[in-house]
Amino acid sequence: STCTLKVMAARKGWENSSIGTYALMHAGIIPLHAALLHPPDSAYMAHLDTSLTDLQIGSDASDGKFLGFHGTDLQATFDLGQRKALSSVSVGYFENMPAYIMRPTEVEIWGGKDKSSFSKIGSVSISPADSMLRGSDRKYITVPLRHPSVQNVKVVVKCLSALPKWNPGKGQKA
Questions:
Q1: Are 95 and 68 spatial neighbours (Cβ–Cβ below 8 Å)?
Q2: Distance separating alpha carbons of residues 136 and 99, to the nearest angstrom
Q3: What does the pLDDT read at residue 83?
Q4: Contact 150/115 with Cβ under 8 angstroms?
Q5: Cα dihedral angle (18, 104, 44, 74), rounded to 10 degrees?
Q6: Parallel, antiparallel or unpaired: strands 20-25 and 2-7
Q7: What are the backbone angles phi and psi of residue 37, rounded to the nearest 5°?
Q8: Of residues 129, 123, 133, the one with CA closest to residue 158
Q9: What is the distance between the alpha carbons of residues 86 and 104, in angstroms, rounded to a whole number?
């Protein structure tokens, strides 16, 4: 599960600080093995497969903790070691529109008893932004699942195919 923490420093006689907003994630089941099915963009390689399960959360796109995909979708498989009941899967992403780092359009979760037979057990579509938002943000998408238990999970994070018409790089691969 996720939550948002908002904090502010205050002291009598002093001016209050600005409000800091932080997205927090509860780490649930940690897979035994994770594998990317396609390599990320060379600018956003992080630690490849290890980045999917190391519980390290990046602060911005340049800190080396984000996997980035340019013109291709993220696809990864996870082996849980044994059948586990899952109610949801959460995926974190980074958005920075001025740097052409766009939110995904959809997250699909596939589950199966083994690595060769998956069926879709959940998906969430994300509305594209309709204007340029300033600044950057780390966000989460939680996909509710409709399957009692699985041992293997495949996650597909679909990327925007091209930058939207309101973006200065309109038409380029997102």
A1: no
A2: 9
A3: 92
A4: no
A5: 150
A6: antiparallel
A7: -85, -20
A8: 123
A9: 22
Q: What is the pLDDT of residues 102-161, one digit of tens each?
A: 889 999 999 998 888 899 999 999 887 766 766 677 788 899 998 778 999 999 999 888
Q: What is the tens place of the pLDDT at every residue in 85-115? A: 999 999 988 888 777 788 899 999 999 988 8
Structure tokens at 112: 């199966």
Distance CA 133, CA 130 (A): 9
Looking up tokens 């238990």 gives 149
Q: Is the dihedral of CA 67, 158, 93, 99 positive or negative?
A: positive
Query: In whole angstroms, what is the distance from residue 70 CA to residue 99 CA?
Result: 13
